[in-house]
Each structure stands twice: as C-alpha cells, then as structure tokens.
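Supplementary Methods, section 5.1.

A reviewer requested that the exact input to the structure prediction be made available. We therefore reproduce it here, unchanged from the version used in the analyses.
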Amino acid sequence: MRSKKMRISFFEEFTTPENLEKLELVKFKTKVYIAAYELSEFKRLKELLYEYELVYWPVLKKREGYWISPFSKRSALCRILEEVRHEPVHLMLDLEHPIFAPWLYITQISNFLRNKSYISNFIAERKGETTLVELTGNRHKLEFLGLSYESKKANMAKMFYTSLIKGTRKRKEKYLRKICVDGVKEYGSRFRIGLGCITKGISRLEPILPPEELAIDLEIAEESGVQEAIIYRLGGLNEEYIKVIYK
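The structure derived from this sequence is encoded token-by-token as follows.
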C-alpha cells in the first residue's frame, strides 16, 4: 500500500462524464484540479462532485491565450480573475505561453507590463488559497516573461511531465529529484509536483508515461519530501495506474 505521507491529486482539463467517472477508481482521499471557462461552470461541477475536494483551474478561450500569462488578452484576463478575486475557493493559476494564439505576442505587447503587474498584484492581494503552476526552467527567465511570481503564501507547483522531456530515463529521474528537493527546500509544505502525462492534453500530441515510470516518479517525489503530487490527468486513469499509485 502506498505511504500516506504524500497526497495524490489529479488535474482534469476536460470535464466530460467519461473523465469524471474515473474517480470511481480512486479509493483514497484525493483532490481534483478542475479546468473551467468561468466560475459558474466550476460551481456546478462542485455541486455535482460534492464529496471531493475540487480546485478551480480557470482557462481562457484558445483565441484569448488559454493559459494565464501577460500575453493573454487583457479583457479576458481581467474577466476571469476579477470574478474570483473575493471568492473563497481554492484557485489554481496555470502560467504558460499562449501557444494556441501566437498573434497575442504582437497584439498584447502593449499590455505586457500592465498585465504582468496585474497578475502579480492579484496573487499578492488575494486572500483565498491559491496554487501557482509553473513550467520548469530558468527562474529569472520565467519571471521576466511573467510566468513565475514570488509569493509568501501561495502554493507552488512545478510541472515536470517526464513523458514530454527529452533525454535518457536516468537523466529525467536525476532532474526530477533535483526539482523536488529544491522545491521542498524553498517552499516547504507549499510545494507540489505535477507528474505525467498519463493521457493526452489540449494539444493531443503528448506522449504517454508508462505506469512503471509513473511509479518511479511518485517514489522520487515522496522520497524528496513532496507532500502532494498532481497527476496529469484524471481521464487517463485505469487499473494499471491505480496499482502503481497504491504500491
């Protein structure tokens, strides 16, 4: 049986009945980070899945940038964040480039600094629990691009999907361990690690992580002192993955 020291949670980007039904396989207390285009949509899902702990993961329309960044369309960014500013929900901000709308790099360049400041102030001023999900890579570069923000209270989650990373398995494991150890050292109990991918995402191009490799990634995270691992994503869950999670 898996140690209870590290919590296992899931991202779910597509809230279809088929994907949400995968929760029936989960026999332990879990948390689900639910993507939704607006707060009302998330609240409906929260009522439906009242027995689970859900986190609101707001996403924009693809043409607006989809993820949160200073290059997101300003009106959409303000719309999605203002409606949750004073809401007592656990909020997750997925900080990534607007790769589905590359024209935003041009149309929003005049708003870049204003948007970056807006996101930073929102994070600092929000009183509800907030989790920031970031890419791995050079911290200074991510901060410059508005994809990383300093916070003394927000949870910090690093996406490290070994199925997407090039290199030998040994190199990936070494890098994952370093990210986990450094993250725990810097953020303590506020640090989380995103693992996967166990099914495809929005781009439909993601390679799938075999169950035996997920088991190793989970073991590395737990050994490093990480208190929560978030698997991308719930819809890919099956009996094979459940077995390695419990081992």
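The two ends are 5 Å apart (CA to CA). These observations are discussed further in the main text.
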